[in-house]
Specification:
Length: about 600
Amino acid sequence: MRTEPIPWTPPAREAGGSGQPQPPAQLRRIFRLFRPYRGRLALVGLLVGAASLVSVASPFLLREILDTAIPQGRTGLLSLLALGMILTAVLNSVFGVLQTLISTTVGQRVMHDLRTAVYAQLQRMPLAFFTKTRTGEVQSRIANDIGGMQATVTSTATSLVSNLTAVIATVVAMLALDWRLTAVSLLLLPLFVWISRRVGNERKKITTQRQKQLAAMAATVTESLSVSGILLGRTMGRSDSLTRSFAEESEKLVGLEVRASMAGRWRMSTIGIVMAAMPALIYWAAGVALQSGGPAISIGTLVAFVSLQQGLFRPTVSLLSTGVDMQTSLALFQRVFEYLDLTVDITEPERPVPLDKVSGEVRFDRVDFAYDPAQPSPTLHGLDVTVPAGGSLAVVGATGSGKSTLGCLVPRLYDVTAGRVTLDGVDVRDLDFDTLARAVGVVSQEAYLFHASVTDNLRFAKPDATDEEIEAAARAAQIHDHIASLPDGYATLVGERGHRFSGGEKQRLAIARTILRDPPVLVLDEATSALDTRTEQAVQQAVDALSAGRTTITIAHRLSTVRDADEIIVLDSGRITERGTHQQLLDLNGHYAELLRRDAHAKAPAVAS
C-alpha cells in the first residue's frame, strides 16, 4: 500500500543551536567533501613536509656559519653554507607555489561540487518550497554562503597541514638545539590555544547573523530591482521608501561587518605582542643561565634558536587563525548543509514503470489534496474524473476553487495526499520524471521566458529542434509574423522575464514552446487569459489544432474557450458540483450557467466600447 507523502513545510529558523549538528560531526562531513581529491591532497602533504624540512635546515646552516666557518676563516665552507641557505629559500618558494596551485584547484573543485549539489537539490524540491521561500534567500545560499567559504575551502586544508608540519618540525629542531630554551618558548602556548578558541566561537555567532542579513538584503534586491519590482515601486510612488528600507538593511550589515572584523582582535594582538617579545625573553634566559653558572650557549646556537623561534611565530599564529577561521566557516557550512538536508518529498520511484508509448488517458481516482496537512479542509476533495485518450476536459469554477491545483497534479508538481492520478492506468508517482515530462505539456497562465533569444526560449522545450520546426511551432501559435517583423527576428532578446513582449505575445511564445515539445497530454491553465479577444480567437484555433488527437485538460476563467470540451466539471471549494457537456450544464441552469452569465456580463462593456 502506498504511503502518502506530507507536503513540504519550510524548516524553522535557527534558534541558537538546538537540533543542529555538533562540530565534530559537522567537521567529519566537511572532510568528506575532500575525499574525492585525497590523491592530490596527499601530494600537497608531501610538498608541505618537504618545505618544512627545508625551512628548518636554514638555521642550522646559520649556526655553522657563525660558530665554525667565520671564526675559523674557512671561506670554502662559508660559501657552501651560504649557497645552501640560498638553495633552501629557492626550494621553499617552489614548494610553496606548487602546493598553492594544487590546494587552490582542490578547493575550487570542492566549491564547485557544493554549488552543484545545492542547485541539484533545489531542482528536486517541490513547488511548495519555492512558493514559501524568497528567491533572494535561495540565491544567497548559493552565492554568499558558498562564496564566503572560498578562502577557507581553498587554503585552510593546506594551511592547516603546512603550519602544523612547520610547527612540529621547528619544535623538534629547537629541542635539538637546546631543550631548556624550548621549554621557555612553549610556556604560554596553552594560553594562546584557549584564546583562539574563544575568538573562534565569538566570530562563528557573528558570521551566522551576518549571513542571515546578507540573505535578507539579497531578497530585497531580487524583489525590488526586478522589472516587476521597479514598475510596482514607481507606479506606487514607493521608490524612495524602498531605498530607505534598503539603507536600513545595509546599515545593519555595517554593524555586523565591523563586529566580525573586530571580534577578538585585541586578544589575537596580545598573542602577537607576546610572540614578538619572545626573542628578548630567550636572550634574557640565556644570560641568566650563564651568570648562574649554567652551561654556556654559543652565539651561533643562540642566533639559530632565535631564528627558529621567530620562524615558529608565523605558523603558530597562522595555525591559531586557521582554527578561528574554521570555527567561523562552520556557520557557513551549516547554512549550506541545511539546504542539502532538505527533505525531497517528490522523488522518482526506485523502479519506475516503463511507458514507452503514451496514449494519454488521465484519471483522477478519489483524489484529495491539501497544501498543509493541518488545514481543516483539503484544497481538493474526492475528485473522481476520467479523461479518455484524445479526449478533452474543461475545469471551471470561481477563483480559489482549486482549478489550477488540479492541473498541477497531472505533471506531478504536487503529490496527492489521498487517492491517485494515473496516466494510461499507471500512477504518475510510479513514472520517472523524464517520462512524465515527455508525456505532459503545461502552458500556465504566467508565461515564463528566460533572458535569452526567442530561438533559445523555444528550443528550451526541444534542444535538438531545427529552425524549421521552431518556425512551424511559432506559426501554429500565431506568433511567427510578429517575430519575423522584429529587426533581429528569432535572435531577438526577450528581456528579463520576457518584458520586451506583451502579455499576449509571451503567452503565444509559451504555447509555441509546448507545441514544439509535442506532448500527448496537454494541461492548459488559463493559457489564453492574457490575450485580447481577437488574439484569443487566433490562438484558440492553434490550440484546437494542437489538441486534435491529444488528451487536453483546460483550466479556464473565460468560459468561451471550453464550450467544445467533451466534459466540463465545475469546482466549488475543491469539490465537483456539476459535470457534463456545455449544453447539458446549460440545461441544468445551475452553477455553470451562472458563471456563463457572469462571463457574458463582464465582456459586455468591452464589446460596447
